[in-house]
Amino acid sequence: MKFRGWPDNGELVVGKVDEIANFGVFVDLEEYEDRRGLVHISEVASGWIKNVRDHVREGQTVVAKVLDVNQSSQQIDLSLKDVNEHQRKEKIQEWKNEQKADKWMSLAFGEDVDDEQYETVANALYSEFGSLYDGFEQAAIHGAEALEDVDLSDDETSAIVETARENVSVPYVNVTGYVDIRCPTGDGVDDIKEALRAAEGNGDVRDEIELSVSYVGSPEYRIKVRAPDYKTAEAELEASAGRARQSIEAAGGTAVYHRERDEETE
């Protein structure tokens, strides 16, 4: 997806060097539709420049700062020298992330998605999260809840969440579930404690996983899992509840797993 319109003064933009002249460099802006900017020779690099080609080459991807935009003359003045290495790396990563998110949009809505729907969904995500990538990342972490305030249909929300959970890798994901544990036998309290120890993994949880079980209100217990990715977190959550159920059922009790808080226990 490319933006329509014009970049703002001071904005960092990604572009591809299209033409090199003695007086400067023409750059096609990768993020904007049909926009081209000029880097004057004085803005290519600090100090005296003998040959522009010593600093850039045709086809090179660069990060530039927008110095001035003149819409009437269709001119965008850019600077390469005003962008430091940290800014360049950060902007390139942001741009690559948006390219990934653009592919995820195609996965979510199909390669033949019409432009109107694409733009409507994309604009809604930009409005809420500032980027497509952040929208998909939040959907991967928090599911449909992350998109509650986004102007999307239920089908669009489901498509984004499903695609995000299958494709987005996030540094760490936190998920929560609940299990209702009951045991009517004489040793019920001890049996429940044993089931909770089983839910916590009896010290056998992998190092990259953080798992805790806490009391909410009889008979409800909260299971929290922190993991490197959503699929792993969900699997650990279900495994924890499964261990609790297996333990308490062996003692004659029951365990019911659910993702949302049971409001009746509040």
SSE layout:
Elements (H helix, E strand, L loop, with lengths): L11 E10 L2 E6 L6 E5 L20 E10 L4 E5 L5 H25 L5 H15 L2 H11 L11 H14 L5 E10 L5 H12 L10 E8 L2 E8 L2 H21 L3 E5 L8
Parallel strand pairs: 3-5
Antiparallel strand pairs: 1-2, 1-4, 2-3, 4-5, 6-8, 6-9, 7-8
- Class from helix and strand fractions: alpha+beta
* Averaged pLDDT: 91
Counting DSSP E segments of at least 2 residues, the number of strands comes to: 9
Helix count equals 6
> What proportion of the residues is helical, as a percent range?
25-40%
The CA-CA distance between the termini, in Å, is 46 Å
* Widest beta sheet: strand line-up: 1-2-3-5-4
CA-based shape: elongated
Strand content: 25-35%
SSE order in H/E notation? EEEEEHHHHEHEEHE
- Low-pLDDT ranges: none
Question: What radius of gyration results from the CA coordinates?
Answer: 27 Å
Biggest sheet layout: 5 strands, mixed, barrel
Characterize this entry briefly.
With 266 residues, the protein is of the alpha+beta class.
Structure explained in plain terms:
This protein has 266 residues and is of the alpha+beta class. Helices cover 37% and strands 25% of the residues. The strands form 2 sheets. It has a 5-stranded mixed β-barrel. A 4-stranded antiparallel beta sheet has the order 7-8-6-9, covered by helices on one side. Strand 2 (24-29) and strand 3 (36-40) form a beta hairpin. Helix 3 crosses helix 4 (154-167).
